[in-house]
Write a structure and sequence with these properties.
This protein has a 3-stranded antiparallel sheet with strand order 4-3-7, with no helix packed on it. Strands 1-2 form a two-stranded antiparallel sheet. Helix 4 crosses helix 6. By secondary structure, it is mainly alpha-helical. The radius of gyration is 25 Å and the shape is globular. A hairpin with a 2-residue loop joins strand 5 and strand 6. It is built from 10 helices and 7 strands.
């Protein structure tokens, strides 16, 4: 398939997805607000002032709930029905050892948090009722999303690899024709340009894995009820650490010479420049971590903040302005999902290219 035709199809499919995501996100937020209102009505015995305060819409709480990690996977709410997938809680304490149970035990029939078996779930963290230190190894929403994306990546690309192996000269078709232009783009525009013809091949598996991992998880995070995996700083930290080791373990002698003993620089200047270069080694992965985390999280916060305006001002007519703008932002986020994967992969390839660059006479 020609690249121009592929890009046109991707553009129009992104618009359609943006429409679906925008209206789905709007309805999900409305459902959550309705449930919050119903739950406060159920506690009519409380004082009037306290009830009025509890019914007030809290956009900050809603936004943090959507972008934070959780011990269950909440998809949507309809009336009093909560479509939630309980996830396994795996905790360790010195007195009890390893304890495994379902996160559903922390919720009662009214979907309120309750203690279970000596443990409490507060603000997304498991605590022991007796104050004992708890080590939490649970499969949270982000971990489950990570596993889902890994299964998707393996299923798609093992299938594509088998087709190439069976008949490498056959024209691509189906899902193979969709991903081939992107793979070629990563190879020619990122790997070859930044690492060089001689060394790029051995880094292609890593670069393709990083690119598609970030892109897939960025897209999954935009699906209503999806997890904010690439907006989790722990995930971006691990990606940055891997980039740090891949870059520096492949550094040639010329790379380290330019850091500790830059040629042509007076020795007294090395006292100033060498510490700066050493700091730069660590600042590069740090910038990768913060850039991806901040951009993805900011996108989610902006979208949720826009829809929250309807409930803050309690004016449904405001939706006539908010929904089209939210749709526009959803389409932008679909583009940003690809751009952030491209930028991360591009920067990593430039760092690797600088590390493996040979000395020019």
């Amino acid at each position: 398939m020609p690249i121009k035709t592929f890009l046109k199809k991707m553009y129009f499919s992104n618009i359609i997805l943006g429409l679906l995501f925008s209206f789905s996100s709007f309805s999900l937020l409305a459902n959550e607000e309705a449930v919050a209102h119903d739950s406060t009505q159920a506690h009519a015995a409380t004082p009037a002032a306290h009830e009025a305060e509890s019914t007030k819409f809290d956009p900050g709480k809603l936004i943090l709930h959507h972008i934070a990690d959780e011990h269950d996977w909440h998809f949507f709410t309809v009336g009093h029905f909560h479509a939630t997938l309980p996830l396994p809680c795996i905790v360790y304490t010195a007195s009890r050892g390893v304890v495994v149970f379902s996160s559903a035990n922390f919720k009662n029939e009214h979907h309120e948090e309750i203690p279970y078996n000596g443990f409490l779930l507060e603000h997304g963290k498991i605590h022991a009722e007796n104050g004992e230190k708890v080590y939490d190894f649970s499969i949270t929403k982000n971990v489950a999303s990570l596993m889902l994306s890994a299964v998707l990546l393996l299923t798609i690309f093992i299938g594509i690899g088998k087709r190439y192996k069976e008949n490498p000269h056959r024209a691509p078709k189906g899902i193979q024709s969709m991903f081939e232009p992107i793979i070629i783009f990563v190879r020619d525009e990122i790997a070859k340009n930044n690492i060089g013809e001689k060394h790029y091949r051995r880094f292609m598996p890593y670069l393709l894995t990083v690119f598609f991992f970030i892109w897939f998880n960025n897209m999954l995070g935009l699906v209503p009820g999806g997890a904010n995996l690439t907006g989790n700083i722990a995930v971006t930290l691990v990606l940055a650490i891997i980039a740090f080791f891949v870059t520096n373990f492949n550094g040639r002698s010329t790379y380290w010479t330019h850091i500790f003993a830059m040629p042509g620089v007076p020795k007294w200047m090395l006292v100033i420049l060498t510490p700066v270069e050493i700091v730069g080694i660590f600042m590069k992965p740090f910038s990768l971590m913060v850039r991806l985390f901040a951009n993805i999280t900011a996108g989610h916060i902006i979208l949720l903040s826009l829809v929250s305006l309807i409930f803050i001002f309690e004016n449904a007519a405001l939706g006539l302005a908010v929904v089209p703008f939210s749709l526009f932002m959803n389409v932008i986020e679909l583009i940003v999902a690809f751009i952030q994967a491209f930028i991360f992969t591009m920067l990593v390839s430039t760092y690797i290219g600088a590390a493996v660059e040979e000395h020019h006479h």
